[in-house]
Amino acid sequence: MTRVTLRDRLASFAFVLPALILFAVFVAYPIFYNLQASTLQWNGASDGTFVGLGNYGELLRDPVFRKTLVNSALWIPLTIVPQALIGLAFALMLDQPLRFRNVYRALLFIPAVLSPVVVGIVWSQILDPNHGTFATVARALGFDSLQLNFLGDPDTALFAVMAVNIWMFTGMSMLFYLAGLQLIDHSLFEAAKIDGASFLQRTTRITFPLLRTTHLTLLLLGIIGSLKTFELIYVMTSGGPFHATEMLPTYAFKQGFQVHEVGYASAISVALLVIAVGAALLMTRVFGAGFLTGEKK
User: Fold this and answer.
1) Cα→Cα distances 279→31, 105, 161, 221, 224, Å
2) Which family does the record claim for this protein (predicted)?
3) Segment (H or E) for 61
């Protein structure tokens, strides 16, 4: 049995030390600083006044904060599920021996690497009710009733931004599923074909269950990504109209940098952190600690 000396332990610690320093400076310290700031009534410039849990009590009474929770509850399933299903469909098609399939893969993946700010600006122009591409095409085809102010109507604004988000990140889901498909033994499909299974039966009874790890990975990444969605919403609607598209990050930004209620914004950020960590722990509890590696509970 090899004996581990003090020198070996120090050498191992020296390799880990840079990562620990980076974690302490860029993760741990901001979290503790944010927690401390959330207990203050503070504008970010002058000395703050300690209010304890007062900011959190205000959160519970804030109708806009409750609206952000409702929007997040809608955003998560209505973006993650379509992205996953459409991405899986594209992956199944592009996993076939098609001509130029690598070109199609690249074209579908391009939106995922674009800046959300650029995407938001372009789609805002497309959805402009007066001079946008959508309105122009609707007028040319005689469908004047489709000239709607999708981003200016509280009933449609959130769903319009959701549609843009789905367009943007479906390619990412496709890429994950393509990677997952490469790990499946194709002899299973050949055996199923011999047994007379149709493409739909092979997909639902072989492919979909064996992509369990990919499903769960996309679910976790989708939840975290949904909770921190900021750029796309801020560029397209700024959280409006009438907070119809307000999310936790946009509301925290407004409170901190527009209203200058930094303490209250910190409390919103802490709530966001708690929700994100809680979602991750819940998934670990439900699916097991090894759900991202495919290990069984």
Assistant:
1) 18, 31, 23, 11, 8
2) Belongs to the binding-protein-dependent transport system permease family.
3) helix 54-61
Query: Which residues are paired to 50 by β-bridges?
Result: 40
Containing domain of residue 239, as a range?
A: 62-287
Provide the b/e sequence for 212-245 (b: ≥16 CB within 10 Å).
ebbbbbbbbbbbebbbebebbbbbbbebbeebbb
Q: Is the pTM of this model over 0.85?
A: yes
**Cα gap 252→275, rounded to integer Å:** 14
Does some domain include residue 120?
A: yes
Give the number of C-alpha atoms closer than 13 A to the C-alpha of residue 273, restricted to the C-beta side: 14
Whole-angstrom distance, CA of residue 245 vs CA of residue 237: 7
- Tell me, yes or no, whether 162 lies in a domain: yes
Is residue 25 domain-resident?
A: no
78-136: pLDDT as tens digits: 999 999 999 999 999 998 888 888 999 999 999 999 999 999 999 999 999 888 888 88
Both tokens of 204, joined, read: 């639902």
